[in-house]
Design a protein that fits this description.
Order of helices and strands: HEEEHEEEEHHHEHEEHEEHHEE
Radius of gyration: 52 Å
Number of domains: 3
Strand content: 15-25%
Number of helices: 9
Oligomer: single chain
Distance between the termini: 59 Å
Helix content: 40-55%
Number of strands: 14
């Protein structure tokens, strides 16, 4: 059961069915209430018309026993004391009105029983009252009645009338609720049969539509599983031609796979290059130590120390690159780039410093490493002089390192920032360079929100410009 309802398709189907079910129940309830209200109003209007017909006769002074009462609907005439003075002939039982009496009581001067004297004049005057007025304010109530042996529910209308010397009378007339009950029951039956069928159709259609919509997702999942199993990052997931969210998901997945492939290939090249760079000083150091062990007098101690320092620097560069690749944040400490430049240039006789005070934010150690790498690179390629300047340009702080060497060809100005790239392999090896300094410098600059570019210096050599945002 958990597996069945764990799929998106089943949850979507269940959710859509529940939403439609709630909507149908709410709509069905509203329809039933509206239907019942309308039919109740119709029954009330029918009862009111019947009552007003009797009220008109009473207002005209017509005797109780000569009232024209509807034999198919329950009618009662009740006086101010609640006494029944007239009623339908076939009325056998009633409820929901002011009295449950069905037979009128005899009245002096006129009865509701329909009997009188033999004298025509006396008979004409029996039970007749003075003309009255129709009262205002009809009230409605629900009840039931039995007429000629048939019981039913009714909507009763109570209409008052001022009947002259007979005082205030109230006429109760009932409108049958059979039509209301029949219509409501029929509508309810249709809903009980139709709603489940409609919900079944909604569930089936949702299941099919969802399966069709999620078919590309299943294709993407299957291809990703195959890529994971084969470890072949050159493969790509299929992109449907629907131009919807699923298509955008496939495109994003392929972009992620491409970035991952590039990262993995870059990592492999990095490991291979690092192994190659480490192999040379390690082999040299081992050879010197083996010679020294066999012939102590031949040990080149200065060369062993140089190789050890070279290994130490290479290991430090590799460790810093690993931290940068892992996403190490530079921090937000404020420091003076001009003062840091003077500090990094100290002890370098060939370096001329022109640095103004300028505040930047980030890692002081990493930015210092950038300046050190740029100065080391300039020293290796300069003929006689290196210049380090720090200035402010708007919202930027620019640290520029220039030399008077041969410069960098325009075609190589981006390639030199790649890892383990050396334009002069022999001289770089002899000087201890591994081709990581400029790659580290650019990576640090980018992570501090800045840039590192190379151009042509006024003296003809290389000009490296480090731009960092000025601390606010």
């Amino acid at each position: 059961m958990r597996r069945i309802f764990g799929s998106v398709r089943s949850r979507a189907t269940l959710g859509a069915t529940l939403v439609v079910a709630v909507a149908l129940v709410a709509a069905g309830a509203a329809v039933l209430l509206s239907l019942r209200s309308n039919l109740m109003d119709q029954a009330g209007n029918e009862a009111q018309r019947t009552a007003q017909n009797v009220v008109a006769q009473l207002a005209a002074g017509k005797p109780y026993d000569r009232l024209d009462l509807d034999d198919e609907s329950p009618v009662q005439v009740v006086d101010a004391d609640g006494t029944l003075v007239a009623a339908s002939d076939e009325l056998e039982r009633i409820s929901g009105t002011a009295t449950d009496a069905v037979k009128p009581q005899s009245q002096s001067g006129g009865t509701g029983t329909g009997t009188g004297d033999d004298d025509d004049d006396a008979d004409d005057d029996s039970g007749r009252g003075e003309a009255g007025e129709i009262g205002e304010g009809t009230e409605f109530s629900d009840g039931s009645a039995t007429i000629d042996g048939e019981s039913a529910d009714y909507r009763f209308a109570a209409v008052p009338v001022e009947a002259g010397d007979r005082g205030r009378l109230t006429v109760y007339a009932g409108g049958s609720l059979d039509a209301e009950q029949s219509a409501v029951n029929t509508a309810l039956t249709v809903m009980l049969i139709g709603f489940p069928l409609l919900l079944g159709v909604v569930a089936g259609v949702t299941w099919l539509v969802t399966r069709r919509a999620l078919r590309p997702v299943e294709g993407i999942r299957g291809e990703m599983a195959a890529i994971t199993a084969s470890e072949d990052l050159a493969r790509r997931v299929p992109v449907p031609g629907t131009h919807d969210e699923v298509a955008r998901l496939a495109l994003t997945t392929n972009e992620t796979l491409a970035a991952l492939q590039t990262s993995v290939e870059r990592q492999r090249r990095f490991v291979a290059d690092a192994s190659h760079e480490l192999r040379s000083p390690i082999a040299s150091l081992r050879t010197q130590l083996e010679v020294g062990a066999a012939h102590p007098e031949l040990l080149d101690l200065d060369g062993a120390v140089e190789d050890t320092v070279r290994l130490q620097g290479l290991a430090a560069d590799l460790l810093l690159l690993a931290r940068l690749d892992a996403g190490e944040r530079p921090g937000d400490a404020r420091f003076d780039l001009g003062a840091l430049a003077c500090e990094q240039a100290e002890g370098r006789a060939e370096v001329t410093v022109e640095a103004r005070s300028a505040q930047v934010a980030g890692s002081r150690g990493q930015v210092g490493r950038v300046l050190t790498n740029l100065l080391d690179n300039a020293r290796r390629h300069a003929r006689s002089a290196v210049t380090l300047t720090v200035r402010r340009e708007g919202e930027w702080v620019v640290a520029a390192v220039a030399d008077d060497g041969d410069g960098v060809a325009e075609a190589d100005r981006e390639r030199i920032f790649e890892r383990f790239v050396r334009l002069d392999e022999a001289r770089s090896r002899d000087d201890g360079g591994a081709g990581l300094g400029l790659a580290i410098a650019r990576d640090v600059a980018v992570r501090h929100g800045g840039t590192l570019t190379v151009g042509r210096a006024p003296a003809g050599g290389a000009l490296f410009e480090l731009r960092l945002p000025q601390a606010q």
